[in-house]
Design a protein that fits this description.
Low-confidence stretches: 91-96
Structural class: alpha/beta
Mean pLDDT: 88
Number of domains: 2
Number of helices: 9
CATH class of the largest domain: Alpha Beta
Helix content: 25-40%
CATH topology of the largest domain: RbsD-like fold
Largest sheet: 6 strands, mixed
Distance between the termini: 53 Å
CATH architecture of the largest domain: 3-Layer(aba) Sandwich
Strand content: 15-25%
Order of helices and strands: EEEHHHHEEHEHHEHEEH
Length: 248
C-alpha cells in the first residue's frame, strides 16, 4: 500500500514493514491535483516495469509539479517535465543525513540532475522566476542566505564549465562581480545582457535557485561541466584538444 502524506511525502507499507519517501521541494500554488497526478504517474511507472520505490519517487515528482499550478487538469504536466525533475539517483541523498556540504534537499536534487551543458540560475530575492522552471527557494529574510554563501556552497559540489552574469554587474554592483570572479577563479567567465537573463535565458534554465539577496543584478548562470580526468581515463579514449588543459 502507498499512502500520500502531502508535504510529508509518501509512505510504502508492505508485509516487511514501512518505508518513508520525502516530498519533492517546490513552490506550492495549489495542491488540488497533486493526488491524481501522483496516482497516475505511479501507475505509469509500474506499467513501465519500474520497481515500487523508483515508481514512488517518479510519482512524487509528478505530484509536486502539479502543486506549482492552479487547478486540476491545468496543473498536470507533460512527461518531459516530470522526467526533467526525476532522477533515480537523486533520492539517495534523502535517506541519510549528510555530514557536510549542502543540506537542502531541493538544491542537492538540482545539482545531481544537471547534465553537461545544462545551466541553473542563482538569483537575488526579486528575480521573476518563470512558473514552468523548477524553483529552489532558499530565501528566509533579506540577505539570508546571500549570493556569496550560496555560490560558494554550490561551487564545492558542482562542476561549473562556464559562469555568466549580467553585463550591468560590472558597473552597478562591482563588489558582487569581484566575489563571483573569486569564487569561480579558473572557470570561463562571461557576461550577458540582464534583459536576456530575465527573458529567454530564465525560461530555458534547468533550475532556478532563489537566495535572500538584496543585490542589484545578482543573477548568475552556472553551466554544468564534467570532470575531464574521470571521463578520459579509460584505455583508448582520446582527450579533445579543448580539454587538454584541464587534464593537468
Amino acid at each position: 500500500m502507498v499512502v500520500t502524506q502531502a508535504e510529508h511525502g509518501s509512505l510504502l507499507l508492505t508485509k516487511e514493514g514501512r518505508r518513508e519517501f520525502p516530498a519533492v521541494a517546490v513552490e506550492v500554488a495549489d495542491t488540488t491535483g497533486a493526488g491524481g497526478a501522483f496516482t497516475a504517474a505511479l501507475a505509469v511507472a509500474l506499467a513501465e516495469g519500474k520497481d515500487i520505490a523508483t515508481a514512488i519517487r517518479f510519482a512524487s515528482c509528478s505530484g509536486a509539479l502539479a502543486c506549482t499550478r492552479l487547478g486540476v487538469i491545468s496543473a498536470l504536466r507533460y512527461r518531459t517535465e516530470v522526467d526533467k525533475l526525476f532522477d533515480p539517483v537523486l533520492y539517495s541523498l534523502t535517506f541519510e543525513m549528510k555530514r557536510h556540504g549542502i543540506l537542502n534537499l531541493g538544491l542537492n536534487q538540482a545539482i545531481a540532475a544537471m547534465g553537461h551543458g545544462d545551466y541553473l540560475i542563482v538569483c537575488d530575492a526579486g528575480f521573476p522566476i518563470p512558473s514552468e522552471v523548477p524553483r529552489i527557494d532558499l530565501a528566509v529574510i533579506p540577505d539570508l542566505p546571500d549570493i556569496e554563501t550560496v555560490l560558494t556552497a554550490i561551487n564545492r559540489e558542482f562542476i561549473a564549465e562556464k559562469v555568466a552574469y549580467a553585463a550591468e554587474m560590472a558597473q552597478n554592483n562591482p563588489r558582487l562581480k569581484d566575489k563571483v570572479d573569486r569564487i569561480f577563479a579558473g572557470v570561463e567567465l562571461t557576461s550577458v545582457s540582464h534583459v536576456d537573463i530575465l527573458g529567454t535565458l530564465s525560461h530555458k534554465a534547468k533550475f532556478i535557485v532563489r537566495t535572500g539577496a538584496f543585490d542589484p543584478f545578482g543573477n548568475i548562470l552556472l553551466y554544468s561541466g564534467v570532470d575531464v580526468k574521470q571521463w578520459f581515463t579509460k584505455p583508448g579514449t582520446v582527450v579533445p584538444d579543448y580539454y587538454r588543459a584541464r587534464m593537468k
